[in-house]
Design a protein that fits this description.
two-stranded antiparallel sheet, 97 residues, alpha+beta, 2 helices, 6 strands
Amino acid sequence: SIQRPASDLVDVPFQELPSGVSYREYREGKGDAVVQQGSKVAVEMTIRCKSFATANEPGGLKYFSTKEDTEFNEIAWTVGSGEILPGLEEAMMGMRR
């Protein structure tokens, strides 16, 4: 089992982008590099549908988790390559690596 830092357990509020995508950044990157078009990124993430929130999943029904649905507990891609949903790329822009 992977040990997670205590910061992963904090209930971080969602940020909403102009497109309507909402996201939460649990651990801010410590590096100087900032995600932009062409950046290669690898992230841990859970994708939820807020429209289907339940008592057990108030943040929305989970339909993808790198922890449960990938072999390496993360997903990697090049921003702008079209490999991932545009809203996910939009949420990544400006984050530190």
